[in-house]
């Protein structure tokens, strides 16, 4: 079983710039390509830098959320400000969160590793808690020793 913890978090909001993922939810290669293309675009056109400029901390949120039966993917930051290019203010509920820590060579690799561990190992094997929907996020927290480190935050409920 992967290393994880359950942690109580206050509600918080993330300002996000997003894209709709059109691949079938079981098409991991298609989803990962869409996410990769999205991140490449917002890095190149400056939208990610615009978000970082108004952030209240150094965290970059990679958020997945179902909105109106659409699979949405966002780059986001914690902030009290707004941006014209931002698509959504994402509300994360107060409550218990599954937290999985990790590190990787790149932001994209970190997000993929954390998502794989959380949804591929921890949640399927969990006996006393479950993910019942709502936004979840891979949170890039910084860099050390040449690696990007962070956590996956998934709201869960006790069974």
UniProtKB/TrEMBL annotation:
This is Transcriptional regulator. InterPro entries: Cass2, Reg_factor_effector_dom_sf. Residues 5-156 form the Integron-associated effector binding protein domain. Pfam families: Cass2.
């Amino acid at each position: 079983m992967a290393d994880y913890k359950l942690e109580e978090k206050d509600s918080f909001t993330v300002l996000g710039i997003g894209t709709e993922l059109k691949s079938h939810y079981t098409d991991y290669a298609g989803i990962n390509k869409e996410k990769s293309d999205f991140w490449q675009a917002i890095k190149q056109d400056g939208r990610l830098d615009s978000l970082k400029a108004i952030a209240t901390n150094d965290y970059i949120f990679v958020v997945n959320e179902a909105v109106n039966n659409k699979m949405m993917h966002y780059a986001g930051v914690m902030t009290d400000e707004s941006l014209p290019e931002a698509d959504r203010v994402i509300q994360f509920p107060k409550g218990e969160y599954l937290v999985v820590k990790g590190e990787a060579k790149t932001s994209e690799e970190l997000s993929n590793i954390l998502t794989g561990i959380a949804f591929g190992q921890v949640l399927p094997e969990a006996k006393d808690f479950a993910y019942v929907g709502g936004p979840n996020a891979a949170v890039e927290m910084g860099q050390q020793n040449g690696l990007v480190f962070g956590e996956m935050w998934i709201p869960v409920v006790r069974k």
